[in-house]
Design brief:
Blueprint: H1 3-17, H2 52-70, H3 72-75, H4 94-97, E1 109-110, E2 116-119, E3 125-127, H5 130-142
Antiparallel strand pairs: 1-2, 2-3
Length: about 160
């Protein structure tokens, strides 16, 4: 085995033992001047840090997600509010990320061209289907089932 393979293997074991920060690429690069991943002579480990804008968005979306997780609509499996509504405790930043008049879950995906919707958390892509992108958020990330029929007091 070459020394560079041993260095990367050692780092991999170390990286697996530490907590990964969201949005932080902890894959090592051995080049001290580039984050391209090309091997360099010095064997330094570089981390690719997310942009300040990306970190702010993650913090804002975390705040929105915490609000949603604590909300009655999720607990009761009822329909979620739309962006622009004024529910009590509504984080004001929701209006900065979601689509006005649409589900609050629109805050959790990129929708630059309104034809391609990319989930901010997992990268799942939905083409030309806003409702499908919202359904992805409900089902995968929030376990929200407002369309499911629920028994009342355990009786049908």
């Amino acid at each position: 085995m070459s020394n560079s393979h041993l260095e990367v293997g050692s780092c991999s074991r170390q990286c697996l033992q530490t907590v990964a920060l969201p949005g932080l690429n902890s894959c090592p690069s051995t080049d001290s001047t580039s984050n391209s991943g090309a091997p360099g002579p010095k064997g330094h480990i570089l981390l690719t840090f997310p942009s300040l804008e990306s970190l702010k968005r993650r913090a804002d979306l975390l705040q929105i997600a915490i609000w949603a997780m604590r909300s009655d609509f999720l607990r009761l499996q009822s329909f979620e509010p739309t962006v622009g509504d004024s529910p009590i405790g509504h984080p004001s930043i929701l209006d900065d990320y979601g689509l006005k008049g649409q589900s609050v879950y629109t805050a959790f995906f990129d929708h630059l061209d309104m034809e391609t919707f990319v989930c901010w958390e997992c990268g799942h892509t939905v083409e030309e289907d806003l409702e499908g992108a919202i359904a992805h958020q409900r089902a995968i990330h929030f376990r929200h089932e407002p369309y499911r029929c629920h028994a009342l007091n355990g009786e049908w």
